[in-house]
Amino acid sequence: MKLLKDNAWNKLRIAKWIGTILCLIGIFLTSLNFYPINLHFGLIGSAVWALVGIYQEDIPLFVVEFVAVVFYVIGVYYS
Q1: How far apart are CA 63 and CA 58, in angstroms?
Q2: Is 58 left (phi over 0), alpha (psi -120 to 50) or beta?
Q3: Using CA atoms, how far apart are residues 55 and 51, in angstroms rounded to an integer?
Q4: CB-count exposure of residue 12 (10 Å: 0-12, 13-18, 19+)
Q5: Taking residues 64-68, what's their average pLDDT?
Q6: Is the Cβ–Cβ distance between 24 and 41 less than 8 Å?
Q7: What is the pLDDT of residue 12?
Q8: Could you write out the DSSP letters of every residue in the chain?
Q9: CA separation for the pair 79, 11 (Å, rounded)
Q10: Is the confidence at residue 2, as pLDDT, over 70?
């Protein structure tokens, strides 16, 4: 990973926490069977993490989150 300036690093940390919180909300809503709003939270959270993966040049992170985004989009489309 490239060395990031402090400001960029802080923004990246914030993005990671936002993505994590959104994914956890989506998981929680799924456990309560709130559908399809759970898909929207998971979609946005995974999209944030996919962007983090691109920014950090972390290909495995990007791939798993990109595939999750694709699956969420399919789920939203068919809901």
Answers
A1: 9
A2: beta
A3: 6
A4: middle
A5: 98
A6: no
A7: 92
A8: -----HHHHHHHHHHHHHHHHHHHHHHHHHHTT-TTHHHHHHHHHHHHHHHHHHHTT-HHHHHHHHHHHHHHHHHHHT-
A9: 33
A10: no
Which two tokens mark 63? Answer: 């791939």
Residue 34 has phi, psi (to 5 degrees) of -90, 110
**pLDDT band with cut points at 50, 70 and 90 for residue 46:** very high
The label of the residue with tokens 């709130």 reads: 34
> Amino acid identity of 16?
K
Q: Is residue 47 within 8 Å of residue 18, measured between CB atoms?
A: no
